Structures are given as structure tokens and as C-alpha cells.
């Protein structure tokens, strides 16, 4: 018996990285999973993997920066599986790297729209559906940079701080309706967001973590699974770092 047996879950940004690992883990633990991403090719591959392992999944292409895509995503999930129990708002980008005075306006708008507004859009429509049966768990993926700053990423840092605060607010609003909302703050994880970095930069990032390495997507997926499951039934409005000790310094 998996900890998500008979549960229906949405995972955004599920074609690669943390989202992919989460979708695969959810399916192994018994959930029916809607895999969503703007990357249709790799998203469908995740669905194929789930089905080949005996699980149930569908793919719904969605741009997580668009409210209507989130609304459609929930609708397609309910159409396929009859309900919605769990949602993971994971889709996000790193955005440009530049000091605040030089930061491009279009870059700011793009990062905020996906990384912050996209989490709001998803949570809004997911809660609307969960209220129909009076229970649910939403996990919003923030970052270690939802707790501290870092130079040259003003939009990303602002968005991730916003995700943490928004999550607390939504949790307070719907706790009595049986809907839990929590956030997870990964450190630097070996995902496509780090692709293209040179060896010296990667070595520098490793050095930021007392544990002495980058994290793995599967390690983040494990705490997302716990928060999604009934094992975390008394947990809401909280932020959980998966960061190799980064925030303890």
C-alpha cells in the first residue's frame, strides 16, 4: 500500500528535475498523476514511464504563468480521474542574472509571472476544486532564496519570498476546510536549471552547502511526498528547507 493510494495529484513543471522525480514517486506511492509542463515531449515521456511501471497518469500541456492554463489543468484532471487531492506547484525559472539597477524589466516580469503569479493561479484553482470534497494538500516549491537574499537575482529572490508568504496566508485561510498548504525550499539541486554552468561555478555552488555536495531531485521529492500524504495531517503553513545545511550558516 502506497501512502498516496486512491489520491489524485497534479505536478507542474514535471517534465524534468524536481517535478519529474515527484511525479514518478507519487505514482509509485499509488497516486494517479497529472503530469504538466510546457515541454510536451519530455512530459509525455514521464507519463510513459509511469504507465510502464503500472501506474496511472495523463499529460496536460500548460504554461504555468497563465491563469487559464491552470484552470484547464484542474478541469482535465477531474475529467480524467474524478477529483483532486494533491497539487505540487513546482514550475519555475531562474531568470536573468544582474544587479537590481541593471535588471531587465521584461526579465523581472517574466520571472514574477511564472514563479509567483503562477503559484497563485495554481493554488487558486486547486483550492476551488478541493473545497468540493473538503480536503487536500498543496505543496508550493519555493527555494532557500525564499528565506535569504543573493546578489544578482532580485526577481527570483522576490518571487520565492513571495511564495513562502503566500503559502502561509492560504494555509491560514483554508485550514478549517481541511486543505493544507505548505512550501518547500530546495538548496542548489542537480536539475536543468543548473545546466550550462561551468565547472568553477558548480564547484562554488557545492561549497555553499555544508554537506559538501549538491542535492538530488529525488531528495526533494521525498519531503514533498510526506507533505502531500496523510502522514503530515497536522502540518500546514510551514516552510521546509532541503538544503544540505545552507540556511544554518
CATH homology-level superfamily: NAD(P)-binding Rossmann-like Domain
Percent helix, as a range, is 40-55%
Given the C-alpha coordinates, what overall shape results?
A: globular
Under CATH at level 1, the class stands as Alpha Beta
* Name given to the CATH architecture: 3-Layer(aba) Sandwich
| CATH topology-level name | Rossmann fold
Mean pLDDT: 97
Total strands: 7
Rg, Å, rounded: 17 Å
Notes on the structure:
- This protein is an alpha/beta fold and about 250 residues long.
- It has a single domain, classed as NAD(P)-binding Rossmann-like Domain (Rossmann fold).
- About 45% of the residues lie in helices and about 15% in strands.
- It contains 7 helices and 7 strands; from the N terminus they run E-H-E-H-E-H-E-H-E-H-E-H-H-E.
- The protein has helices at about 15-30, 40-50, 65-80, 105-130, 155-175, 200-205, 215-230, and strands spanning about 10, 30-35, 55-60, 85-90, 135-140, 180-185, 240.
- Strands 3-2-1-4-5-6-7 form a 7-stranded parallel beta sheet, with helices on both faces.
- Helix 1 (about 15-30) crosses helix 7.
- The termini are far apart.
- The model has no long low-confidence stretch (mean pLDDT about 95).
What can be said about this structure in brief?
The protein has 249 residues and is of the alpha/beta class. Helix content is 43%, strand content 16%.
